[in-house]
Amino acid sequence: MGYIYAIIILGGINIIAVLGVAILTCYTGLFSIGHAGFMALGGYMSAIMVKEFNIPFPFALIIGGTFAGLCSFIIGYPAFRSRLRGDYFAIATLGFSESIRLLLNNTKTIGNITLGGAFGYMNIPSHTTVLAVIVCVILALYFAHMFVTSQYGKNSISVSQDEVAAQMMGVNLMKTKMIALFISAFYSGVAGGLLGFYFAYLSPSFFSITKSSDLLAAVVFGGIQSLIGPFITAFVLVAVPELLRSFAEWRLIIYGFLFVIVMIFRPQGLLGYVEINMSFVRVFWNKLFHRKAKTQEG
Amino acid sequence: MELFIQQLVSGISIGAIYSLLAVGYALVYSVYNFTNWAFDGFMAFGAFMAFLAISSALEAPFWVAALISIVLTVLLAVTSEKLAYSPLRKRKAPRLFMMISAMGVNLAIVNLINLFFGGTFRKFPVDNLQPIFIGNVSVGRMDLMAGAISFGVLALLWLFLYRTKWGLGIRASSIDILTASLMGINNDAVALIVFGITGVLSTTAGIFFGIKYAVFPMMGLVTIKAMIASIVGGLGSLPAAILGSMLLGILETLVSGYISSTYRDLFSFFFLIVILLFFPNGLMGKSGDEKL
Question: Which ipTM did the prediction report?
């Protein structure tokens, strides 16, 4: 049972991080291959908060996420101001995450907090349980859904479709992209925090380019403009290599070929443009209690 | 002063390696409007092939090994074009798809190398590495060679692009690929030549990078620097890519020489942010973007 729990926890953490990337990549059209950097920032920050300042675990996660979000402005502001798009924004994020990893690798102490450099930050209190992860995943999915159906989400989608047209309709490009980047980095930060509280240990090597590629893979396979697609693939991509251990070293090679195959044969991804739809729950609920279905809803 | 000159020479040679890579990116970008992410895979592949040709039973001399690896990498580049990009180009897919496809090619190549040869660092087997002394200044032989050959390759590329009919075809395609094909330029041939050139450029860079540092599967990560250099110089133009690369190479070497080599990579990233804050279009960039 413990093994199943481990897969659920790791899968859930991956889902939260992937939802963050999905908000940025699938809905705003900004391609990031550096979200491992935000995970590292959030993870270290929330671990420090709990271990050194005795802040309760949920608040520490929020602080870690916010910290990652704020740090995203370091890369976001100059990149959006110079209208770096597509590939070059991806480079900037990759450079950012590699710098974060390098910085953590070479930082033994901050003040009197021992970060341990490349050896990793040890003895983090273990707080992440299955329940905590499931609650976090549900909240993350709920808020992501609220975001993409809100006015901000619609702005983001319009930016991803055509920046010039969106700007002509009065969408503030800078603000929209910054908000999307902040939320996306927040998600990654929370995921990093959960990871740290699960392993009771954080090392800069967790957050290498491989991690970013994994996140990206889930989003690409999951589908463009969909939350449920990346949600499913994020879990599957953690669970399958766990269950088939011998297949583990071929994982990234297979991802690589799948990227090409998916782009050629099904570029919208597994569940592209399929949105989570909760209206069936309402219909079911109404049937169950013989209430009048409100047609104007949903 | 001697130290400074040594650092400068070293910086120029690393800048020359970056410019090979940056020019390769700029070439693909100017014609097809996407970044060929598979470039770092090609670079590692080229370096590994040269390494194997020298150190395996073949025991090829350096120049032969270089030639073999260039031929193999060009084949790989052309194959990846045919398999991964050509179907997308024919369908006029958005450039995001090309980019993801290129990332896939890269992931596959780098991890295949990792699987077959292992992730260990290997020393590139070259002899005759004694530095040359000019007065009191010792200059690495390989630094000089890397610089000279890189500039030679770039000069050849320039001659090809500006003095031959094929080059004219590529330049025409970079302005408008559709009109160029209406004028009788064979799009597929242009694609093969462009990707072939990137194969040559990335292998040359890979071999010299391997000699200067080591040969390992993740060595292609250095192409981030080349991309940073092409952003610093200004997107999509070949001279700007070379300027950015030289600047980045020299500054980076000076930082690692005078401050600390651990913060060298950090420096190049902060350099990018500072340049973007003050020159949003890069140093030589035109504001080509549509602005309202």
Answer: 0.81
